[in-house]
Amino acid sequence: QLTMSLNSSTLLNDENTQGAKRNTECLESLLQTPSSFQDNPLQQLQLASQEVLEKAKKSGRSKCPRCNSSRMFYCYTCFVPVETVPTTEIPTVKLPLKIDIIKHPNETDGKSTAVQAKLLAPDDVTIYKYPCIPEYEEKRHEIALVFPGPNSVSVKDIAFHLQKYTKKDVCASDDDCSREPLLKQAKIEPEEEKNPNECISSSRNEGTRLKKIIFIDSTWNQTNKIITDERLQG
Fold first, then answer.
1. Among candidates 184, 190, 133, which has minimal Cα distance to 163?
2. Phi, then psi, of 133 in degrees rounded to 5
3. In the chain, % of residues over pLDDT 90
4. How far is the C-alpha of 136 from the C-alpha of 60, rounded, in Å?
């Protein structure tokens, strides 16, 4: 029995070793296989040092410099790093467009992942707590709301959709006219399909520019109250 047990253990270790080897080979194969940015958008991702976070973790919770609340790493109500995380050591990015995040009032602040966007792109991301949101009526031709629905268009079709909307925008005072483009799903012939990453540059070339993206931060059960708000229609 002891011999069988040892043999079984040896066999299991061999299988684990071979499995790990196969996983490593598979990973190396994936890394070596050329792929487009669309297939692997994180292939050019450059990670900053996490040393500042490791130091803060050892120090434990710290105070928010604005509200003095005890937090770890950052304050999820003031959207700033805590005292043990120097702002100079936190990388920030510049986004190609503005982002508005509409947060449901019942969402737990500490569980919202929208805060990370605000921390990393403070100049381009704005977080609103519903119902305190901006009026988008006059800017609808340059804004896209990311949300599934019967009249939604794909990301790659946004520029085409905005172009259609802008053409009709001259008669926006007429309700029927201004709503017409919203009832039709934008269509693009197969040869005209574009990479989603070209959406912004494409819209510029076509005389239309996507300037802002809106996201809703809530559970699916809570989205209905926000998505049906008249300020987000169209």
1. 184
2. -130, 160
3. 27
4. 42
Cis peptide before 131 (omega within 30 of 0): yes
Amino acid at 75: C
Phi, psi of 102 (to 5 degrees): -100, 115
What pTM did the predictor assign?
0.63
Residues 124 and 214 in one domain: yes
Residue 198 tokens, joined? 């070209």
| Dist. CA 95–CA 111, nearest whole Å | 23
Q: Say yes or no: 134 and 83 in one domain.
A: no
Q: Which residue in the block uniquely carries the two structure tokens 């520029």?
A: 159
The verdict on 141 and 72 lying in the same domain is no
Residue-range definition of the domain harbouring residue 80: 51-90
Distance CA 234, CA 230 (A): 9
pLDDT tops 50 at residue 166: yes
pLDDT in tens, 212-223: 999 999 888 888
How many other C-beta atoms can be found within 10 angstroms of the C-beta atom of residue 1?
5
